[in-house]
Amino acid sequence: MNPKLFDGKVQQVRQLTPRVREYQLTTADGSPLPAWTAGAHIALHLTSPTRGLVVRHYSLIGGDGLRDDPPNTYRIAVQREEHGFGSNLIHETFKTGTPLRMGPPVNSFALDRDASKVLLLAGGIGITPLVPMARSLLRRKRTFQVVYSGRCVEQMAYAQPLKALCGDALRLQCSDSDGVLDIPALLAQQDADTQVYVCGPTPFINAAIAAAQALGWAEGRLRSEAFISSVLPGDTPFKVLLKKTGREVQVHSDESLLDALSQARVPVFWDCRKGECGLCVTKVLSHDGELQHRDRYLTDEEKTQGQSMCLCVSRTNGQSLVLDL
Amino acid sequence: MNAIVDPSIIDIENPDNFELGGFADHTTALIKDCWYVAALTHEVSREVISKRLLGVDVALYRTLAGKAVAVRNRCPHRSFPLAKGKLEGDVLVCGYHGMAFNPNGHCVKMPALPIVPTHADVRSYPVVERGPLVWIWLGHPDRADESLVPDTEWLANPQWRTVNGFFPIQADYVSMHENLLDQTHFPFLHPGAIGTPEYARSKLDARMDGDAVVIDRALLNSPPPGVYAMPTGLTGKPVDRFSEARFVSPALHRAFARIVDNKDPSGQPRTYRFNITHIFTPETNQSMHYWWFCSRDFKHDDAAIDEHLSTASAKAYKEDVDALEWIMDNILKDSEPQFDLHFAPDKPGLMMRQSLYRLAMLEAGQPA
What we know:
The structure holds 2 protein chains of 2 kinds. Chain A is α/β, with parallel strands linked by helices. Chain A has 8 helices and 18 strands. Chain A folds into 3 domains: 6-102, Elongation Factor Tu (Ef-tu), domain 3; 117-224, Rossmann fold, CATH 3.40.50; 238-323, Beta-grasp domain (Ubiquitin-like (UB roll), Roll). Chain A starts with 5 loop residues before the first strand and ends with a strand. Chain B is of the alpha+beta class. Chain B starts with 34 loop residues before the first strand and ends in a 5-residue tail after the last helix. The A-B interface holds A 30, 32, 35, 37-38, 68-73, 106-110, 112-114, 135-136, 139-140, 226, 272, 274, 276-278, 296-299 and B 15-16, 104, 106, 113-115, 117-119, 121, 124, 126, 140-145, 363-366.
């Protein structure tokens, strides 16, 4: 099997907004990294002094303006979240030269090369996969518009470089001054052959999906990045009892069950870390709270039965879980 | 016991070691951001085929609507060659676990899972068809500008009659490009066919045109070489010859030749034109696919001329192929290092090597 991780280091750090920093990551030995296309992301494998392995996913940006970064460089942008363990770890520890490991690029949000007209719709830090899409569309001289909503322009990463690149094709919607973006109205204005790519916080994406459904749009005309976060605001800590080994592992409110088990060196299989591949599905022997299934792998029936769960994205709001591990 | 050295394994030059003004050879990284010919149009059909292009195995097929499709010939799940699978409508189904991909490379089915995974796409490559050629872009798809496909309109233009052929070659494409910019070898490697001693000594004018290298040559009042003499019917007759040989891109060399008979029986000078098209797609750093086309703008319906041009061209190009394979073999197997000598007539070849080297540097992210 190919090694799936590349040894790298932080090459350059740039503050984009009060909460967002851009990191240029490069390989430790200068060798080139795999090529990727707009919409792709990578997994960063970080080591926390307290938690051990922490894996977070970030979209690839590509370069300044229309210039590409060298083939040994990936560029990401990380927004510091109040309850985000990974983003805080990155903001606190990433300096020029910090070693890290990164996975190969994966694209679950690919831009359709044949699309004639495109609307890129971003909410906040959801702009990150859409930046390389805008660069791709510009290079290929396609008709497109970017609608980028956020609180105020000072807090909107890449607002200025996008303005320079896209000119009038960029619409900035600042909720502080312009009010909240009317997504249904925006979608209703689109030509029949416009494809829409949306990325942002879950409520933003859900609003766009609902609006597209209300307009009777064909499936696939609006595409969104599957939300890759194992932890959501409001998640609570719980204990996991491992039946076969008799061990007990604590899962913090800001870490995933899979991360907690990896930290405790409990061997489990995993691959996609976003609830699709089904490799980390584990038998649940008992639970005292509700199981919060956030995967796409298990059927609704299996989720209701509550006898198994995806360790990478799912958790419980109870005090403890007993797993067949 | 000595370690077993596999001469087929070439160390590709580390891009960090690039030096300004360097010359490409068989160890230089291949240029990916370029249109290459993947196949002739008739080769791409509802039967999935595969070819290794620039070191990457590519599967080629046509949709029901007739559009040529190129995807990586390697399932993202367990590396099964997708060309060994089958087409169901426009969907390519892997022969191992039935994973299915649409023409964009997007996974539309994974039978072993209750869902379709969102990240399981196979890479698809931009493809453009022009006349008899299927062009593919193996570099970054954003840079696949169709206006960069080199012009070969004469291959589809009814004013031209074309004969063609193909060779797989166990040699690097750089030396093949050099061979075609090196007109001093003609009378020796191809005696009697495409070069005359006068031609070898005639002054040439080589120049850069962007990344391209162009050689203009004029040889006045001299009999045409064998390959052109029979079709024009001008054997032994002094004519004026004008030629432009052009290294167009890593994928293409073309040679336009004009033979002007100033003493045509009509009383007016008569011009005979030949457009020779050489198309190269590196298979690896040391092997290539080579398609040649010989087009003429006169006597379209003369089967004897077709036969003559076909046979004479294939013979001459086979001589080139043999020479380059012998040279590659020497380079790979000879243990004593050698630093090849260069002479004035090698300048066009060196210009081309420098151009390829600069393109490789740019792709490696080095300022060139």
